[in-house]
Give the backbone structure.
Amino acid sequence: MRWSSPGKPITRLQPVQPIDFFLTVAAPSYNTKYENYEHGDFARHARGGGADVQRGVIVVLMLVLALTAASCGGLRPWRAPAEPAEPLPEPPVRLVTTVYALAEFSRAVGGDRVAVELLVPAGGHAHDYEPTPRDVERILRADVFVYNGAAFEPWVDQVVELIGAGPPHAVDASGGIELHRAGDPGTAGGSERGTDPHVWLDPQRAARQVAAITEALVQVDPAGEGLYRANAGTFHGRLAALDGQGREALAGCRLRHFIVDHGAFGYLAGRYGLVQVAVTGVAADHEPPPRRLAELAAFMREQGIAVVYREPGTISGALEALAAETGAAILTLHPLETPGAGEEARAGTYLTIMEENFEALRQGLDCPAREG
């Protein structure tokens, strides 16, 4: 349907003022008494004229309001525009890191004074991750760059060389920490020999990493020293309590060996007197030969192992085949490298995820039920 005004068609609806609506649509048919008025004269009469015209204006305004209510789903009460919110102050320190666990430690120490960015995206694999030019820019704009070291990030030496004396302040979080090699106590099997970088999975070694992050934050932001040291002290206490929980949960287990897809859990195993048996190596970048799978299946039957462990968001064909061959259940251990992706993306903290790891191991190793 096309609406028309005196003299020219309107082919599309356009916003109009109520008085204009009255003049162009309603006025010509309102009262023949005013049919010879020019628009300007009529407007003057309508705004200040007789009672009949004023009543007509009121009627038309009511009509306009009714049409507006019908088209918009009802009238809304007028509210004064809200005052613009004060922008939140930016944290004084920007920190970029490569590992989910190190991001958790940095948040625990830095609190609201530190904006923490995790470089590796959710669901990514930090071992084979390659930073983009945008990622390198993020590092160079930060105040602190925390990386794990121990050959965990193969590309990091080039970035540290680019940083030079900084900023940012570069922190090797595993510097000075005693490292395992594949095949050391706590690790068995796997086809790779090399340094195991997953030190954060041992709460006592994690405490050393927290201390390194704390010193870096104090150095770049002396004004926050009191907060950083207080937060670090609190978190060290929580790590000590976590260590105690692990010892309690994993004491007196029938089994000591556990089968994992990726050999990331040697430090955790060694801390609690256990032994991880890895289907793949520390870097989880290759499939084992069939003979290796046959040996693992025979070992599981000999030991009475009925559980194998995958990581969130991923499982190798080798581990699936091993579980199918032995009838083993598949549980999850989280290496805390990245948050995971999709449905398994984690909102948990380092502490809560480690507690879940202890519980998963307790179930698979046939440990005594925990009291309470």
